[in-house]
């Protein structure tokens, strides 16, 4: 059984949904690295500090139940707004932010039996991962999923606007200079556009065995 699984891909491809299920089935820890970039963005938004200062003394913890704590406060819900999504993609360009979070992520993965998702896990954070997945889907399908997700949480949602924001985030995440969103050479490409969640989970479990 593969001990460390890295899952990368663009926003809305289903990384966190399938990674959570795979983790539960294998008894692994799921680590959502996007939530850590979101927490840094939230700190910048709430404190008005510049990125260099905000990252210096930031305290980010993920617990076993998937909750995220920013400087000791549970911010699990607060980091899911469209404003924080934009902010996360912005702070993710900074080398100081990436260095600090990458180090934290490596420490969290050191125990093994983890599935970690993000943008640069297979390429930068865990280049020696036992299994690397690059999960993608068409931009329309990803926008449709994000639209339904936001509606479910009672956030205002406009499909065209979401599509535009996802495309912008893809562009920003793929074109940044440091650790851009990219498929690792040894990653398995999975296109989830026409697959159900269960089909993607089954394929990852088959590859992990
Ligand atoms: O997966 P997500 O949508 O919650 O991630 C939010 C942003 O964080 C994403 O637009 C880019 C950034 N990110 C990153 O640069 N590297 C990661 N490993 C994870 C997320």
Overview of this protein structure:
The protein has a single domain, classed as P-loop containing nucleotide triphosphate hydrolases (Rossmann fold, 3-Layer(aba) Sandwich), CATH 3.40.50. Helix content is 51%, strand content 15%. It is built from nine helices and eight strands. With 209 residues, it is α/β, with parallel strands linked by helices. Strands 2-6-1-7-8 form a five-stranded parallel sheet, sandwiched between helices. It starts with a strand and ends with a helix. 2'-deoxycytidine-5'-monophosphate (DC) is lined by residues 11, 33-34, 37-38, 88-89, 92, 118-121, 169, 173. Residues 11, 33-34, 37-38, 88-89, 92, 118-121, 169, 173 line the site of 2'-deoxycytidine-5'-monophosphate.
What keyword list fits this structure?
single chain, 209 residues, alpha/beta, Rossmann fold, five-stranded parallel β-sheet, three-stranded antiparallel β-sheet, 9 helices, 51% helix, binds 2'-deoxycytidine-5'-monophosphate
Q: What value does the average pLDDT take?
A: 95
Helical segment tally? 9
- Number-wise, the strands total 8
Distinct compounds present: 2'-deoxycytidine-5'-monophosphate
Rg over CA atoms, rounded to whole Å, is 16 Å
CATH class type: Alpha Beta
The CATH architecture category equals 3-Layer(aba) Sandwich
- How is the CATH topology named? Rossmann fold
Q: How many domains?
A: 1
Q: Largest sheet, described in full?
A: 5 strands, parallel
First-residue to last-residue Cα separation: 5 Å
Shape: globular
Point out poorly predicted stretches: none
CATH superfamily: P-loop containing nucleotide triphosphate hydrolases
Order of secondary-structure elements: EHEHHEEEHHEHEHHEH
Helix content: 40-55%
Task: Please give the order of strands in the largest beta sheet.
Answer: 2-6-1-7-8
Strand fraction equals 15-25%
The assigned structural class equals alpha/beta
